[in-house]
Amino acid sequence: MKRIGKQTVRLSEGVTILSAASTVGPKEAEGPLGKYFDQKTEDSFFGEKSWELAESKFVEKNMRLAVQKANLKSEDIDYILCGDLLNQCTGSTFGIKNLDIPFFGLFGACSTMGESMSLGAMLIDGGFANHVLTGASSHFCAAEKQFRFPLPLGTQRPPTSTWTVTGDGAVVLARKGDGPKIVEITTGKIVDMGVADVNNMGAAMAPAAAALLKAHFEDTGRTPQDYDAIATGDLGTIGRELVVELLGKEGYLLDNRYTDCGIEIFDAEKQDTHAGGSGCACSAVTFCAYFYPKLLSGKIEKMLFIPTGALMSTTSSQQGQSIPGIAHGLVIEGCRKGAEEC
Amino acid sequence: MKRIGKQTVRLSEGVTILSAASTVGPKEAEGPLGKYFDQKTEDSFFGEKSWELAESKFVEKNMRLAVQKANLKSEDIDYILCGDLLNQCTGSTFGIKNLDIPFFGLFGACSTMGESMSLGAMLIDGGFANHVLTGASSHFCAAEKQFRFPLPLGTQRPPTSTWTVTGDGAVVLARKGDGPKIVEITTGKIVDMGVADVNNMGAAMAPAAAALLKAHFEDTGRTPQDYDAIATGDLGTIGRELVVELLGKEGYLLDNRYTDCGIEIFDAEKQDTHAGGSGCACSAVTFCAYFYPKLLSGKIEKMLFIPTGALMSTTSSQQGQSIPGIAHGLVIEGCRKGAEEC
Prior knowledge:
Chain A is an alpha/beta fold. Chain A folds into two domains: 8-174, Stage V sporulation protein AD (Peroxisomal Thiolase, Chain A, domain 1), CATH 3.40.47.40; 181-333, 3-Layer(aba) Sandwich (Peroxisomal Thiolase, Chain A, domain 1), CATH 3.40.47. Helix content of chain A is 35%, strand content 23%. Chain A is built from eleven helices and 15 strands. Chain A has helices at 26-30, 51-69, 90-96, 112-125, 140-147, 201-220, 236-249, 261-264, 268-271, 280-297, 314-318; strands spanning 8-24, 39-40, 79-84, 103-105, 131-138, 163-164, 167-174, 181-186, 229-232, 258-260, 277-278, 302-306, 308-310, 325-327, 329-333. In chain A, strands 1, 2, 3, 4, 5, 7, 8, 9, 10, 12 and 15 form an eleven-stranded mixed sheet that branches. In chain A, helix 2 packs across helix 3 (90-96). At the A-B interface, helix 3, strand 4, helix 4 and helix 11 of A face helix 3, strand 4, helix 4 and helix 11 of B.
């Protein structure tokens, strides 16, 4: 058995992240991480007739790029695992339907990148696959239209709101090969503290992120200081502050090695994104474009990556329900500086 | 490596289905399988204020029952994997949020029971868990309201339409213990033959089911006659006929040992369900209530269970997209008649 605690497992060999690809929209391209993304589009329709079809195009283009960057072909991939925010996850379905790969569809809201990498790594470590393609996508316009207001209304956004990232992030996981390695997985439980404000997702998800961190530290006996970097998914500035406070109460000091992908991806002031970035693609593209290269070069030797998700729908919110949160954690070891192999 | 073909893996030890539980609504209770279900409700609201909350109650009550029937407690379960048809899978989220179990949310539309059992079995066989709880749910009223027309309109249903099953089916999978065993898993690819009629889901999903069967027979070198029972998920009469025809063209004879859960669950003529039952719960509750006891008693020694899903949303349909289908197959071995252990 590979379990090292109630919520954590240690992989027997470590699963290599063979490649990572990111494809984003224009706003992301203009942000602080702009230069790191593999593919950028000039318009959010990406040449399609609808935002939903545009999201699927982000998925398809980016998934194919991830496979190409791993020097593989579609037929070398044993499983594909991905998901998104659209109703019935059609962003993923229509994006990957021409890839001709056995498919497990996921719904983890914005925690999907963590969920897909967790399950993908376990499928490989369990002996079921050599290569697994995993990813997550979101689209600002499609998400606003579906979850909030029609964009042409120009509705004012409250300061606690976050900006859904447009794009797709994907990685190829492999049994063998050089690259950063997934070594442990801490799987989240649903945490619902009763937050019902759909314009404050950071606050809704923060307790789930804090619970995941606590569980991870208890399962492994480590502290935040054992990591070079800890990154949650899309809590933004408000959510990050809450996590720091909640963990402080548990006796864990989250210092400046802890960031949130939603803080990294936009320049909140210049880009008018309020509390930060969000959406499934937020942690997915930030991991692929920003953290993966640092793991590859050895700048980061040990990272805790924790995509976070808010598991609500317009129906549940309209019926007065709160917003349950979830978070999925992965420990990823980078290559050692100067090492010939990794 | 446990792979025995492009889409099929063989588990190293076989994963036991320790218990199976089913909870259904009034129409299902009145159908031909009525006497087999564990829990039946008299009204489709199940004492809740909305159909969506009712669906979550089906999930919670039934998941707890599955754990109880396995003589386990919630804290003995390492992971829970489930999903449903509601936007952002809130049927599952609100149903399991109080169970306090690490959670992987799935979206496989009506193939979800197959997807959850596949991933759950691989997590156990891969050494990551001792017990996994998997399931799927749907609710006729919530699904009609979301996907088609408000129920009070009394819209006439075309003869090709199917009736979404109200209920939840769940199993506890285990590394050890007596009971029927999952021994092989064939994972489906998305198949899209261009069917766009949301009132003919059987036709939309049949090509995916046929492709899965063909892939399974090719990977294993078997024929339909190697099984005592083959059951697809929710194709109904029209979809079943198409599958028989498509497989016939490939040289495989699907005789009367092949049925579809959507045909078994309702008496189409008496219950006015047209082409049959559908929804995530269709294959889930039919497996748990009808097939599982036959596997347990040895009446069925070898079964191929293939939940089927239509991966569309109202948005994709309104934008003129076709309905991509998927199917997930599991080979389950029953207990031998008269054997003391299984």
